[in-house]
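Bumping my old thread because nobody answered last time. Still need a sequence for this structure:
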C-alpha cells in the first residue's frame, strides 16, 4: 500500500493537525461523554458544537459519510437468533448447487452464459433474508416483496431446489427454456409466472420499481383499499447497478414519503462486470453520502466478527485511518490475495497494524471476513433496518465478488465471466465449504440435496414456516371486477353531436365517468407526470383529490377556486411530478396490484406520448414481462397533430415501438367513440377475463367534430379497422386507410378524388395497424404450416383483391407498412418520417406529405399517370423537393 497519510480520502482533504495535544484532549473528553452519557448525548453535544461553530462564522465541512467501519457497534449487536453452524452449512450447499447449475450448463452447451461470482458474493445476504426476514404470503396476510439482484438468480433457484419447489431436472435446464420446464436466466414473471414476481434483469429497474411499490402499498392503505401495514419491500442490488440513473432517481421520494417499509441492501463487492466500481474511490462511502444526502438511514456492514477483536485492540485507530485512505482498487487487490500478501501489503505498512495481527497466522488473516459475509453483522443490520421508523434504510454490505472461488474468481476483474471451472477449482471449492461430495460427484458437478429429514432441511423448512412459507412466489389470479356497461359511462362518445372535441378530452371524460362507478371507480388510478392541466384533468384535483401521504399542510393558493389543488391522504390521483420513470413505476405497481396485493386496480397513466415508449421504453418492457394490466394513454400524440411543439415533443414512433411488445394492444383511434370501445374492451379483458395484457392508446389534442359508432361496428374497431364510408359511384377504385387524426385528411382526400378526379374510393378507419398485422401474421403462419388454409385475416376480409391501397398515419411509414406484406394489392404508405418541427398542423402535414393533397397524389399514382401529373401541378407539389426525413 502506498503513502496513505497524504492521500485524499473520499471527497475531503486530510487536514493538518497543528496541536496534537489539544486535539487529544477534545477527543478524550468526547470519549468520556460517550462512556457516561452514551451516544445520544454525544450526538446532542456535536449538534450544539456545530451550531456554535456556525454562529462563530466557521463553515463546518463535516463529511456526508461516516468512518469506514460498521454502523452498528459490537455492543449494540443483538444475539443471533439462528443456528449459525447450520446456516453456514445450508449456505454452502446452496453455493455449490448455484455454481454447479451455471458451470454444468456451460460445460454441456457452451455459450449459455450465467453468473457464478455475483451470487457467491451475495449468498449470506440472501440467506439472512430467507432465514430470518423475507415474509411470504400466508393465511396471516400478504408478505414482503423482494427484488432479487437478477444475475444472482442461480442462488434463488438453488435454494428453491432444497425447499423442494424446484427439481434437479429443472436445475439441469437452467437457461434452456424453449422446450419448457427450464429456468430463466433472470427473474421473468412472463416465463416463470408462478415463481418470479419482479423483473430485475435490466439494471436500474428493480431499485426504482421497489420504491414505487413501497409507496403504492401506502397508497392502498391510505385509500382504505387494502391493509398493507407490516409488509416490507426488500431490494437486493449490486453496487455497480447504483450507477444507473433509475437506481437513484426515486431515493428522495422514498425519504420524502417516509417509506420505512422499504430497505435496500446494496451488495458492495466493489466490482462491476469489467472491473472495479470505483477503483480510485470508495463506493461504500460514495453511496453513504448519496443515500444519507437523500434522507435515508444508512447502515454500513463492512467488517465481519473476526475483525471485532482487532478493532477492540486498536486503541490508536490505525485500522480506521488506513481504511479511510485506501481506494477500492486496493481493497480488491487485497481481496484477491492470500493472508501472507495481506500481511505484507497491508498490516506491515504500519507498526500499529503489524502489532494487531502479530499472533495471527496467514490462514487466520486470510479468514478475516468482510461484513457482508457475516450472518451476525448482516442480521443486526436487517433487524435495525426493519425497526427503523420514519425513513427508508439502506444496508451497505461490503463483500467479495466470487467469494470462495479461490484463485480464479475471488475479487478478480474477470470474476464476472467465470462460467467454466476446472476440476481442481471445483475440489478446492468443495473443501473450502466442507461439502459432503466425493471426487466423482465434484467432477460430475452433481447437485446435492440432503435427505428430507436431515437437520439441514428440517432447519430450512422450519425457518421458512416461521416466515409464512416460501418465496419468491407469484400469484396470478384475483377476483374479477365487473366493468359497467359502456353505455352507462361512454354514451357521450358513442353518439357524437356537432360539437368539436379532442380524443384526449374524451378519454379523460371516459375514465372520469368510470371513477363514479361504485365498484370499479375506487380502483381507477389516474397517474400524471405534471401534465394534468395539459390534458384537461384539473377537475379531478377537486373531484378525487391528489394523493399525499400527509394530506395538505398549506392552504392552496387557489383555495377559492372551484377546481382548487386539493391534496389529501385518500386522494386517488397520483401526481408524480416531472418523472416519467417514476410515473410508469407507479403505473406498474398499480397494474400488477392484482397479483402483488390481490387487489385489481385499473391505472390510466396519461402523458405526452413522445415521453413514453421512447423515453421509458425499457420500463414498459419490464411492465410487459411483469404481466401488467392497465392503460397507457399517449396524449398530445402525432408528429403533425401536436402543432407548434417541435422536434423533441412530436411523437411519430411510439406506435411502432408499441407494436414490438407482445402483450401490448396498441391503438391509434381517430374518434372518441372508437377510444370508448377500446377502453371498454380492454377493461373487460383485463378485469373480467383476467388477461395479462395492457393497452396503449394514442390520443390527440386536435378538436374536431367526432363520429358516432353503431354497435355492430365495435368488433371491427377492436380488430383494427372498420369501414368509415364509400365515396363516388360503383366499385371503389382505391382503398384509403387512415389512423388517428390523419383519418380526417384521408376523408378529405376521398371527397377530392370523387369530386375533382371522379375516382371512387372506400375510406377505412384503422384503429390499429399493429393489431391488424398481428392477426394477419398469425393467419399467414397457419397457412404456411398447412393449418386452416380457409381462415382469413381481418385485413384481407376488409381489403380483398388488388385494387390499390393508400395508407396514411401520423407515425413513421413503417407503422402503416406493418400490414403491407399481408395485402394482395399494391399499397403506398404515407407517414411522418424525419424530425418533427414547430409549425401549424396544416404546414406540418404538407411538409411530411400526409395531407389530403399528398394522399390524392398517392392514390392517383397507382391509378392514372395522366391525372397524377395534373394533380401534382394543380396542388403545387414539387417532385424535386428534398424528402422530409433528409431535412
Ligand atoms: C441496463 C443494463 N445494462 C447492462 C447490463 C449488463 N450487466 C449485467 S450484470 C452487470 C454488472 C453488474 O454489476 P453489479 O451491479 O455491481 O453486480 P455484481 O455482479 O457485481 O454483484 C452488467 C453491466 C444489464 N443487465 N442491464
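Sorry it took so long. Here it is:
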Amino acid at each position: 500500500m502506498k503513502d496513505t497519510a497524504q492521500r485524499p480520502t473520499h471527497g475531503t482533504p486530510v487536514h493538518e493537525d497543528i496541536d496534537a495535544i489539544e486535539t487529544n484532549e477534545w477527543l478524550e473528553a468526547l470519549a468520556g461523554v460517550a462512556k457516561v452519557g452514551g451516544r445520544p448525548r454525544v450526538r446532542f453535544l456535536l449538534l450544539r458544537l456545530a451550531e456554535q461553530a456556525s454562529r462563530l462564522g466557521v463553515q463546518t465541512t463535516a463529511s456526508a459519510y461516516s468512518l469506514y467501519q460498521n454502523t452498528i457497534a459490537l455492543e449494540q449487536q443483538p444475539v443471533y437468533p439462528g443456528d449459525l453452524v447450520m446456516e453456514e452449512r445450508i449456505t454452502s450447499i446452496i453455493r455449490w448447487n448455484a455454481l454447479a447449475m451455471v458451470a454444468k450448463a456451460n460445460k454441456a452447451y457452451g455459450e449459455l452464459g450465467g453468473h457464478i461470482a455475483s451470487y457467491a458474493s451475495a449468498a449470506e445476504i440472501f440467506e439472512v433474508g430467507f432465514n430470518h426476514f423475507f415474509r411470504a404470503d400466508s393465511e396471516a396476510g400478504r408478505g414482503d416483496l423482494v427484488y432479487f439482484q437478477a444475475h444472482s438468480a442461480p442462488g434463488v433457484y438453488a435454494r428453491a431446489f432444497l425447499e423442494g419447489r424446484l427439481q434437479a431436472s429443472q436445475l439441469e435446464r437452467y437457461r434452456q427454456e424453449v422446450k419448457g420446464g427450464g429456468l430463466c436466466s433472470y427473474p421473468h414473471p412472463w416465463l416463470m409466472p408462478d415463481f418470479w414476481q419482479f423483473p430485475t434483469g435490466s439494471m436500474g429497474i428493480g431499485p426504482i420499481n421497489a420504491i414505487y411499490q413501497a409507496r403504492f402499498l401506502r397508497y392502498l392503505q391510505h385509500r382504505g383499499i387494502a391493509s398493507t401495514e407490516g409488509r416490507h419491500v426488500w431490494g437486493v442490488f449490486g453496487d455497480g447497478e447504483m450507477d444507473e440513473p433509475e437506481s437513484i432517481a426515486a431515493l428522495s421520494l422514498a425519504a420524502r414519503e417516509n417509506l420505512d417499509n422499504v430497505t435496500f441492501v446494496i451488495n458492495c463487492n466493489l466490482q462491476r462486470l469489467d472491473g472495479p466500481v470505483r477503483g480510485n474511490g470508495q463506493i461504500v462511502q460514495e453511496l453513504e453520502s448519496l443515500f444519507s444526502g437523500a434522507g435515508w438511514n444508512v447502515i454500513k456492514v463492512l467488517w465481519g466478527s473476526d475483525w471485532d477483536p482487532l478493532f477492540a485492540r486498536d486503541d490508536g485507530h490505525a485500522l480506521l485511518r488506513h481504511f479511510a485512505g485506501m481506494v477500492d482498487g486496493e481493497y480488491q487487490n487485497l481481496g484477491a490475495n492470500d493472508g501472507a500478501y495481506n500481511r505484507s501489503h497491508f498490516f506491515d505498512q504500519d507498526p500499529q497494524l503489524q502489532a494487531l495481527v502479530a499472533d495471527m497466522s496467514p490462514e487466520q488473516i486470510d479468514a478475516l471476513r468482510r461484513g457482508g459475509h457475516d450472518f451476525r453483522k448482516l442480521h443486526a443490520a436487517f433487524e435495525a433496518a426493519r425497526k427503523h421508523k420514519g425513513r427508508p434504510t439502506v444496508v451497505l454490505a461490503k463483500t467479495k465478488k466470487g467469494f470462495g472461488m479461490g484463485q480464479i474468481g475471488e475479487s478478480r476483474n474477470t470474476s464476472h465471466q467465470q462460467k467454466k471451472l476446472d476440476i481442481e477449482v471445483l475440489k478446492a471449492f468443495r473443501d473450502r465449504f466442507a461439502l459432503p461430495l466425493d471426487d466423482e460427484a465434484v467432477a460430475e458437478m452433481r447437485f446435492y440435496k440432503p435427505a428430507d429429514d436431515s437437520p439441514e432441511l428440517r432447519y430450512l423448512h422450519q425457518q421458512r414456516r416461521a416466515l409464512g412459507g416460501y418465496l419468491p412466489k407469484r400469484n396470478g389470479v384475483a377476483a374479477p371486477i365487473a366493468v359497467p356497461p359502456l353505455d352507462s359511462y361512454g354514451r357521450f362518445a358513442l353518439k357524437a353531436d356537432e360539437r368539436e372535441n379532442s380524443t384526449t378530452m374524451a378519454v379523460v371524460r371516459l375514465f372520469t365517468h368510470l371513477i363514479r362507478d361504485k365498484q370499479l371507480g375506487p380502483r381507477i388510478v389516474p397517474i400524471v407526470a405534471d401534465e394534468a392541466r395539459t390534458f384537461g384533468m384539473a377537475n379531478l384535483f377537486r373531484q378525487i383529490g391528489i394523493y399525499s401521504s400527509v394530506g395538505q399542510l398549506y392552504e392552496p393558493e387557489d383555495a377559492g377556486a372551484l377546481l382548487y389543488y386539493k391534496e389529501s391522504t385518500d386522494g386517488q390521483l397520483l401526481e408524480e411530478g416531472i418523472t416519467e420513470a417514476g410515473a410508469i413505476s407507479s403505473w406498474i405497481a398499480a397494474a400488477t396490484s392484482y397479483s402483488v396485493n390481490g387487489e385489481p386496480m385499473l391505472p390510466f397513466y396519461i402523458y405526452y406520448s413522445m415521453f413514453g415508449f421512447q423515453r421509458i421504453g425499457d420500463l414498459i418492457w419490464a411492465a410487459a414481462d411483469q404481466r401488467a394490466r392497465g392503460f397507457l394513454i399517449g396524449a398530445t400524440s402525432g408528429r403533425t397533430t401536436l402543432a407548434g411543439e417541435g422536434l423533441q415533443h412530436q411523437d411519430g414512433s411510439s406506435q411502432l415501438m408499441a407494436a414490438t411488445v407482445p402483450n401490448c394492444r396498441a391503438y391509434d383511434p381517430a374518434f372518441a367513440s372508437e377510444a370508448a370501445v377500446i377502453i371498454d374492451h380492454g377493461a373487460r379483458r383485463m378485469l373480467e377475463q383476467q388477461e395479462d395484457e395492457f393497452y396503449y392508446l394514442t390520443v390527440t389534442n386536435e378538436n374536431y367534430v367526432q363520429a358516432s359508432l353503431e354497435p355492430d361496428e365495435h368488433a371491427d374497431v377492436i380488430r383494427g379497422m372498420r369501414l368509415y364510408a364509400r365515396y363516388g359511384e360503383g366499385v371503389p377504385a382505391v382503398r384509403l386507410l387512415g389512423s388517428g387524426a390523419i383519418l380526417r385528411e384521408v376523408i378529405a382526400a376521398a371527397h377530392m378524388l370523387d369530386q375533382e378526379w371522379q375516382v371512387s374510393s372506400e375510406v377505412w378507419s384503422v384503429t390499429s395497424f399493429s393489431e391488424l398485422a398481428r392477426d394477419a401474421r398469425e393467419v399467414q403462419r397457419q397457412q404456411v404450416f398447412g393449418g386452416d388454409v380457409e381462415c382469413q385475416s381481418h385485413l384481407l376480409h376488409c381489403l380483398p383483391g388488388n385494387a390499390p391501397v393508400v395508407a396514411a398515419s401520423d407515425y413513421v411509414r413503417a407503422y402503416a407498412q406493418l400490414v403491407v406484406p399481408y395485402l394482395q394489392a399494391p399499397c403506398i404508405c404515407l407517414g411522418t418520417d424525419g424530425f418533427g418541427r414547430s409549425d401549424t398542423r396544416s404546414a406540418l402535414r404538407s411538409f411530411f406529405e400526409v395531407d389530403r393533397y399528398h394522399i390524392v397524389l398517392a392514390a392517383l399514382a397507382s391509378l392514372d399517370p395522366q391525372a397524377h401529373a395534373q394533380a401534382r401541378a394543380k396542388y403545387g407539389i414539387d417532385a424535386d423537393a428534398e424528402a422530409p426525413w433528409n431535412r
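The first strand starts at residue 145 and ends at 147. Let me know if any region looks off to you.
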